[in-house]
Design a protein that fits this description.
Elements lengths: L17 E4 L3 E5 L4 E5 L5 E4 L10 E6 L6 E5 L4 E5 L2 E5 L1 H4 L8 E7 L2 E6 L3 E5 L4 E6 L10 E6 L3 E6 L2 E6 L12 E2 L6 E7 L2 E6 L2 E6 L2 E6 L5 E7 L2 E7 L5 E6 L5 E5 L8 E7 L2 E6 L3 E5 L5 E4 L12 E4 L2 E4 L5
Antiparallel strand pairs: 1-2, 2-3, 3-4, 5-6, 6-7, 7-8, 9-10, 10-11, 11-12, 13-14, 14-15, 15-16, 17-18, 18-19, 19-20, 21-22, 22-23, 23-24, 25-26, 26-27, 27-28, 29-30
Length: 329
């Protein structure tokens, strides 16, 4: 119990929307907060405003390449960096008065930087100095443009934008200059771009295409609507959900062949993101929470004890007992 005069949170932890793998634990975001689970003994730790986070509405998680710094992006564009349970706040984007869409749709880690795909363009975060180091407005004519994905290979940065897939050479003097970015023909409708086994993979609608020189060849399509696509341990993990609610996670080999299908309804009912940790799948599910799925398809669910939803009704105390109603059925 929290000491007298100190706060304790009672936030819902049953809905998982994003995950990021650290060295000895996995981090899971809910719409309200964050928790972690250790790999070896499944110890759960909660993170919220009570423990130092700056906000309650988490939108995106991203772990750096050494797996020791976690970037937490919030729905209001605020940023926290979590390092050894210490929280460093980066409020610059939230405080900036620039008009337009400052939402953070995705984050990509490369070296000592995080690259944020936002409604304005690409925003670069220096993970060593804990600061925003640059903003790239790469839309046509140098205007803001909505970016929904960002990645890189050995020679280029790639940005999935509403104007198509754009690329710029790594090492150019001024990546913030839109004239250094080339829009690749035939990529209208791109939603995501990922680096896999030395080549680039592009998501257009519910299909995946692989780069082949200057062209893009169909890599995978199965008729299921895609919720998310991730690269993890040299494989593609596809979260899929049909309009009737049937869901699954498909794990693809680099060549586009199916490695494994996860369709256990107890762990996969609305999968939002899936990762591999030592070849073992972890699934963040909007309804089923966080689950680790074994090779036998048996699964372990990790959900800290919490209310099922945010209480929005009446509150009262009677006979030294606190009662709160949720205000909905």
């Amino acid at each position: 119990l929290a000491p007298v005069g100190q706060w304790r949170e009672h936030l819902p932890y049953n809905s998982a929307i994003d995950i990021a793998a650290g060295n000895n634990r996995i981090f899971c975001a809910t719409p309200f907060s964050l928790f972690s689970v250790t790999y070896d003994d499944a110890q759960i730790e909660r993170f919220s405003r009570v423990t130092g986070l700056s906000e309650t509405g988490v939108s995106v998680l991203c772990m750096n390449e050494t797996r020791d710094k976690l970037l937490v992006a919030y729905s209001n564009s605020n940023l926290d960096m979590l390092i050894n349970n210490r929280v460093y706040n980066l409020p610059d984007i939230k405080r900036d008065n620039t008009p337009g869409d400052k939402s953070i749709y995705r984050a990509y880690a490369l070296g000592k930087k995080f690259y944020l795909a936002t409604g304005l363009g690409v925003i670069v975060v220096d993970a060593d100095r804990y600061e925003i180091s640059d903003t790239w407005l790469i839309g046509n004519g140098g205007n803001p443009v909505k970016v929904t994905g960002f990645s890189s290979d050995a020679g280029f940065y790639y940005a999935a934008t509403v104007e198509g897939l754009k690329k710029a050479a790594i090492g150019i003097a001024d990546p913030a200059d839109y004239r250094n970015w080339q829009t690749i023909p035939g990529t209208a409708g791109i939603l995501q771009v990922l680096h896999l086994s030395g080549t680039m993979v592009m998501q257009k609608n519910d299909s995946l295409f692989v780069q082949n020189g200057n062209s893009w060849n169909l890599l995978y399509q199965d008729g299921w609507p895609l919720v998310s696509v991730e690269v993890s341990e040299n494989k593609l993990l596809l979260c899929e959900r049909q309009t009737n609610g049937i869901s699954r996670v498909v794990i693809l080999n680099p060549g586009g062949t199916v490695n494994r299908v996860l369709d256990n309804t107890g762990a996969v009912s609305f999968p939002r993101k899936a990762l591999l940790v030592n070849s073992e799948p972890w699934v963040a599910d909007q309804f089923a929470g966080l689950s680790r799925i074994a090779n036998s398809n048996a699964y372990a669910n990790f959900s800290p004890g919490s209310p099922q939803a945010v209480g929005g009704g009446e509150m009262l105390v009677a006979d030294q007992v606190f009662y709160a109603t949720a205000g909905a059925v």
